[in-house]
Amino acid sequence: MILLDDLPLDLLDMILFRLEPQAMAMIRCTNKSFKSYLTDPRFGPQYPSWVRPTLINIWSSNKSLIFCQPLVYSCDYMSLGNKAEFINDRCYIFGSCSGLLLLYIGHFFIVNPLTKKFRIVDHSGSKLLPPIVGGVEKADPYDPDGPLVRTERAMCVGFVVDQCRITKIFKIVCILEMETKYRFEISDGDSWRLSKTTLTTSSKSGLKKRMRPVYVDGNLHWLRNDWSIIAFNPETEQARLIPCSFHPTPDTKVLFAANDETNLLTLISGTKKAISVYTLLGYHKWTLARQFKNVSMEESDLECWNVVAYDGKCLVVREKMIRSSDIELHVYDMEADSWGVFETAKCWSQDFYTFKPSFFSIEDDEQTKVLVPSDDQRLSYLTTIMEMIQPVKETHKDD
């Protein structure tokens, strides 16, 4: 019988890399040596690079619909996504980092869809989160039927995960806007506190609504209306303003993102004719990294369009036509320099997240565990979401 310890590491890697993500997760439960090896920093960060990201979209009204689709880079892999329906509850994703999701379904959950593990986060001690998720009055025109997650303010919430530890240590950071001053509220899941850090700017400019913060190089980055950036390091709790100059035209569609290949901040600037990819170099200047033709659009029938996702390998555009109830997603393969129709549905929302799996643990500390009744319907919803997100392994020539 050949033991795990008897195999050369390079041979073991070749065997494990050929497994599907779900099979890999099951193997972790069969043997302590396998579990230890799969969570070792020498292996853990490598395997996800062989797995295609998943594009997640949640549309919420009186019920929530979730769409999950492998974020493919070639038309050869185009396939239908998955859909789940939730009755009488709204679901919202507040963050995605290192294979973990920060979800809200009545409670905040930190979820690992690959290992099916989750942790409940008590947000009652936060000053900022309750107004965002606590609901609105019946007379509120934005939600006449009841509680609503205020998605237009969700960009105030940042979610980060320490990638250097075997047991993932996460932090939730909320930014508080006060005219020209900014404060930061932090939680590691056990308690909430206000950082001593205060950032004062010379001019008043709000954060761009619906533009989520981007986590790059150990810092969370928020984009302001004047195109400057607020950077905050959750470990050192140092903050700074990056006065970047960027002046798009009124008809330009902009996406604030990160290039996973280069680990650089990225601004996607698109018109109906062309899309430009800018990277931030030296924390001062946006440099044009690439430009290509936008997907062909019939302007006479076009109701709206926007750029919704980018990861360095591909870019996704959302398009809605006037005479059709369908909304199309188009994917641009950066390497192949070509467009393909990604998916068509009747209700793609504007909120898209990319997810890449990891195997790391997020179990509760028994002394700080938040208890939820086992028959709570939202736990069933959470299980459904985790089942929906099925990561797909990259196909390589030698597979």
Q: Tell me the helix content.
A: 10-25%
Domains (count): 2
Q: Helix segment count?
A: 5
Q: What CATH architecture of the largest domain do you see?
A: 6 Propeller
On the 0 to 100 scale, the average pLDDT is 78
Report the β-strand fraction as a percent range: 35-45%
Poorly predicted runs: 75-80, 136-147
- Spatial sequence of strands, sheet with the most strands: 4-3-2-25
Pfam family, one: FBA_1
Domain F-box: 4-43
Domain F-box associated beta-propeller type: 91-267
Transmembrane segments: 91-110
Describe this structure in words.
- This protein is mostly beta strands.
- It folds into two domains: 1-38, no CATH class; 39-393, Neuraminidase.
- The chain has helices at 9-17, 21-27, 32-38, 129-133, 377-388, and strands at 51-52, 54-60, 63-70, 82-87, 92-97, 100-104, 108-112, 117-121, 157-162, 169-178, 181-187, 192-200, 214-216, 219-223, 229-232, 239-242, 253-259, 264-270, 274-281, 285-293, 302-310, 314-321, 327-333, 338-345, 352-355, 392-393.
- It has a four-stranded antiparallel beta sheet, covered by helices on one side.
Q: Gist?
A:
With 399 residues, this protein is mainly beta.
Record keyword descriptors for this entry.
single chain, Neuraminidase, four-stranded antiparallel sheet, globular
Describe how the helices and strands are arranged.
Elements: H1 9-17, H2 21-27, H3 32-38, E1 51-52, E2 54-60, E3 63-70, E4 82-87, E5 92-97, E6 100-104, E7 108-112, E8 117-121, H4 129-133, E9 157-162, E10 169-178, E11 181-187, E12 192-200, E13 214-216, E14 219-223, E15 229-232, E16 239-242, E17 253-259, E18 264-270, E19 274-281, E20 285-293, E21 302-310, E22 314-321, E23 327-333, E24 338-345, E25 352-355, H5 377-388, E26 392-393
Antiparallel strand pairs: 1-26, 2-3, 2-25, 3-4, 5-6, 6-7, 7-8, 9-10, 10-11, 11-12, 13-14, 14-15, 15-16, 17-18, 18-19, 19-20, 21-22, 22-23, 23-24
Domain F-box associated beta-propeller type: 91-267
Domain F-box: 4-43
Transmembrane segments: 91-110
